Structure formats: C-alpha cells, structure tokens
Amino acid sequence: MIKNFLLSMTLLMFSGAVLAADQEKGKRLVELNNCASCHGANLNSPIAPEYPKLAGQYGDYLFHAMLAYQAKERRLVGRNHPIMVGQMAKFSRAELEDMAAYIASLPGDLTTKP
Fold first, then answer.
1. Phi, psi of 91 (to 5 degrees)
2. Which residues of 66-79 are buried (b: 16+ CB within 10 A; e: fewer)?
3. What is the pTM of this model?
4. How far apart are CA 72 and CA 111, in angstroms?
5. CB 62 within 8 A of CB 114
6. What share of the chain is helix, strand, coil (3-state, %, to 5)?
C-alpha cells in the first residue's frame, strides 16, 4: 500500500514538471534537432510506419519515453532504437521536459479505442 502511494506521488511529481516546462524552449529544441525528419510534418506524419506519431501524446508519456532512451540499462525499459538513443543522450532532464511539453501541445490525430 505504501509502495503504491510512493509510486503515485513520484508519477505526479514528474508529470507536474512537464506541465511547468517551457514550451517555447521545447519548440526550439525540436526544430534545432530536426525531429520532423523522421516524425514528419508537425510530428504527426512519420516518414515510415515504425516511427511513432508524437503530436498530441501526453506530455508525461513523452517525457518518460525520451528519458528511457537515456537509461543505461536499456533492455529493462524497452527503449533501444539506436538513432533515438543517440539523439536523446545530449539533453538535460529540463530540456526533455520542455520538448515533451511542446510536443504534447501540438494537435494530433491519435485516437483511443473504447
């Protein structure tokens, strides 16, 4: 029970950080690093089916996905695409939060199934 509470509080802390991030800085980072070269225009039309649509994803999901590419033990977190590992290695935690906040603000056409 206490373990679940601590996990919930940790997740709230991280998602709050994304909400407080600077979307303008995130936009500049996304553009400087040419994320659209793989994820497509407005990060919503990937150039290949194996690349995900990013626009409209939840900010905390994006943040944790990008953070997972920086993990030293990648096989445990499932994020091991070599291009993304290289791309994400150079960013600080604050920069990841900024990019996640910006990308989450973009309109996307993702839908969920009931």
1. -95, 145
2. bbbbbeeeeeeeeb
3. 0.78
4. 32
5. no
6. 60, 0, 40
